[in-house]
Design goal:
By secondary structure, the chain is an alpha/beta fold. The chain contains eleven helices and ten strands.
Length: about 300
């Protein structure tokens, strides 16, 4: 019998399952192998892409860290603040008294400061979310939101109450204010003293928020509130310069009893770059005389 004949007479053994018969069919076997190869290839490509992404992310981490460290070694720095004259303002010479202190401290550290004046809450949020902004100021503390650390003090501010001369308030403690159910004007987003903010937060002290100090002083002139939390220098500046408060100096006064002589800080991001920039700023701050700068500023500019 010829080889051809043997091939023709070859039969599938009995008992072989149908699936096995299909698997030995030449055309079926090829397509099965192709499908298997396609599945393996797709899986390999997906695994390779995932590995590539993981490697790329791992490679970027040290680059981000290097960028963060290098930002602390730059020749310039961007910081944010608010309209809070006479401490900080885009409308004041040199940006205000505290801005001049901050600029000179950075200059002593070999850095030029770019100051962005924004609404207070945005000044804080931009410092947190925008990598270009290294810090915000001036804070009575740096706990407005999580993720910031304080510099050495950049100045002080006498914090107390404005009141209407026709209706002076008698008080010796924050509890006295709560017991009298006085309406106290505050500024939305501003920190005051820990005790005042805690008791205002519980409702014991009746705090009436306003968008700014000018609004509070106008309301106080009209006796719509009983007193307003304000910085003494801010009040003096606004009464002397704000047209809508004309005549306010004859109606309003700063209470002789202060809440606190608040320390002011520059608030840096609580990360490696923030710590490095804070240390550099503090080194520059140690080289300047804060009180002398503030005194000279008011003598020359007002």
């Amino acid at each position: 019998m010829s080889l051809l004949g043997l091939r023709r007479n070859r039969t599938t053994p009995t008992g072989t399952p149908t699936s096995e018969k299909a698997s030995v069919d030449p055309s079926g076997n090829v397509w099965a192998r192709r499908r298997s190869f396609s599945t393996v290839l797709a899986s390999s490509l997906q695994t390779g892409a995932a590995r590539f992404r993981a490697l790329a992310i791992a490679a970027l981490v040290p680059l981000v860290q290097v960028f963060a460290i290098n930002s602390a070694l730059a020749d310039s720095v961007v910081i944010s603040t608010l309209e809070w004259p006479p401490y900080a303002s885009a409308e004041l010479p040199k940006g205000g008294a505290t801005t001049e202190v901050v600029r000179q401290a950075f200059a002593a550290a070999g850095l030029e400061a770019e100051v962005r004046v924004l609404p207070w809450k945005r000044a804080i949020s931009d410092a947190k979310d925008d990598m270009k902004i290294a810090a915000y100021y001036p804070g009575y503390h740096c706990r407005h939101v999580e993720g910031f650390v304080a510099s050495e003090p950049i100045g002080t501010g006498p914090l107390g109450f404005a009141e209407n001369m026709d209706a002076p308030v008698e008080w010796t403690s924050i509890d006295d204010i709560g017991e009298q159910k006085l309406k106290v004007g505050t500024v939305l987003g501003y920190a005051n003293t820990d005790e005042f903010d805690e008791k205002a937060g519980t409702g014991w002290v009746r705090a009436i928020p306003a968008p700014d100090d000018v609004t509070n002083l106008r309301k106080l002139m009209l006796k719509r509130i009983d007193m307003a939390v304000i910085d003494k220098l801010v009040m003096s500046y606004l009464l002397a310069t704000e047209p809508t408060l004309s005549g306010g100096g004859e109606i309003l006064k700063f209470d002789s009893k202060t809440l606190d002589d608040k320390t002011l800080f520059l608030c840096f991001n609580d990360d490696e770059a923030g710590h490095a920039m804070r240390d550099r700023f503090n080194a520059g701050l140690a080289k300047i005389d804060i009180d002398a700068i503030v005194e000279r500023y008011f003598a020359e500019e007002f």
